[in-house]
Prior knowledge:
Layout: E1 2-7, H1 11-26, E2 30-32, E3 40-45, H2 50-68, E4 74-79, H3 80-92, E5 98-100, H4 108-112, E6 149-153, E7 155-156, H5 167-171, E8 175-176, H6 179-191, E9 196-200, H7 216-224, E10 232-235, H8 245-253, E11 260-262, H9 270-275, H10 282-295, E12 300-307, H11 314-327, E13 331-336, H12 354-377, E14 383-391, E15 399-402, E16 414-418, E17 430-438, E18 443-447
Parallel strand pairs: 1-2, 1-3, 3-4, 4-5, 6-9, 9-10, 11-12, 12-13, 16-18
Antiparallel strand pairs: 7-8, 14-15, 14-17, 15-16, 17-18
Helix pairs in contact: 6-7, 7-8, 11-12
Amino acid sequence: MKVGFISLGCPKNLVDSEVMMGQLKATGYQITADANEADIVVVNTCGFIDAAKKESIEAILEAAKLKSEGRATRLIVAGCLVERYRDELKLSLPEVDAFIGTSQINDILRVCDPKTDTRSLPVVSLGNQSATYLYDESTPRVLATPSHYAFIKIAEGCDRPCAFCFIPQMRGHFRSRRFGSIVAEAQQLAEEGVKELILVAQDSSRYGEDLGKQDALAQLLRELSHTDGIEWVRVMYTYPTHISDAFLDVLAEEPKAVKYLDMPLQHASQNVLKLMKRGGNRLSLERLIRRVRDRVPGIAVRTTFITGFPGETDEDFEELLQFVKNVEFDRVGVFTYSDEEGTPAYDLPNKVDPKIARRRRARLMKEQSRISRKLNRAKIGQRVHVIFEGESTESDLLWQGRMETQAPDIDGCVLINDAPDDFIPAPGELVNVLITGAQEYDLVGRILN
C-alpha cells in the first residue's frame, strides 16, 4: 500500500513525519510524495498559532476530499493540532479514520494496518506532562529534506512558562535524548551523504540539563563537529538565558560548528517581557548580544519578535524598534500576536487591535530590511564558503547555495550566476564564491576555481 504524507509546521514536526515514514517503509509500505496516488493519507498537523491551525484544517479537508472521491481508503491525522483539539476534531471530522498525538508516533503502524478498526481505538491524550516519547538512533527515518542536510531532534517538550505559548501542553515536559544516541545518528546520516546537521528542539540550549549534565550542548556540538563526512553543524532554537560561554567557545573554535545563533527574543521592552513571563530588558539583551559577538567574531544572530502582545504600548514598541536599530541583527522574523485559548496571555487585559499589531510588524520589518540590505552590501567583494544546493527557486537560469550564516528555508541564500566552465554541480558540495551583488535578503555571486 502507498502512504502519502502532508507534513506541516516546524522542522521538529518534520522529524516526526520522517520517523513515521521510516517505520512504515521498514514494514513494507511504499511512501509517495503525491497524496493523489496514496492509499493512505497522513496529515501531520501544527497547532501553534491561529494561521497554522487554519492551514492544518484546510489540509485535512483537502485530504478528506481525496478519500471521498475514492482515491484514498484511509485518512490519518497526527501531530500538535490533535494533541490540542483531539475531542473536537473527532466529533467534527468523522471522515478521519484515526487521530494520533505527539507521543503516539509509534502507533502509525497500527492505524495504517487495514486490519485495524481505527474507530475502536481509545481517544487518549499523551502529549502533556506524562509524555515520554523520544526517537533514537535505531528508529528508521525517511528523510524529507534535500539529501545534503538533515534535522536531528536532540530533545522534546518544553518547561518554559512563556505566556503566549501552548507547546508544553502539546509536547509535554522537557526531555533530552542520550548523548550517544545523537552521535550515533549523526554518524549514520554522514554515511548516507548528509553534509549539514541541524540540531532542533523546543529549547536546544537546555539540552542535557535533565540528564544532570552541565554545558551538554557545548559538548555535543564539539563532538558532532568531529564527525567524518559532515561539513557543518547548526543549532536552532536557543533561549537567551542559557547561552553559555562554553557553547560560544565551541562556535568560535570548531570550523564545522557554524557561526550562527538562532535565539528568539520575542521583545525588548521590560514591560512586555514581564507580561510574556520571559524576563530581562533591553539593556540585558544588548549586553548579551555584545557578549555573543565579542566571543564569536563574524557570528550571524537570528531572532524573532512578536508585535501586538496584550499590554504592548506605543512606548514599548518604540523601544523594540530602537533596539533593532541599535543591535542590527543579521536575520529577523516578526509575527503578530495570536490570541490562543489555554495560554496565560489569553486572559490578559489590554488587548492590542490586530490592525495596530500588523502596522507595528510592517514598521519593524521595514527597518530590518534596511539593515539587511546594508549588511549584505558590506559583503560585496568577499570570498565565502557556500554549500551548493542546485537550481535556484527563483529562476532556472541561476543556481543557489547558502553561507554558514544562512539556515535553509528561513534565511536568504546566495544566488549564483557564474561558474568556471568545468564546474560540475553537486548539491552538498562546499564551493568558494565571490560575492558580486546584494539584494534585500539574498546575495549574488560567482563560483571561483
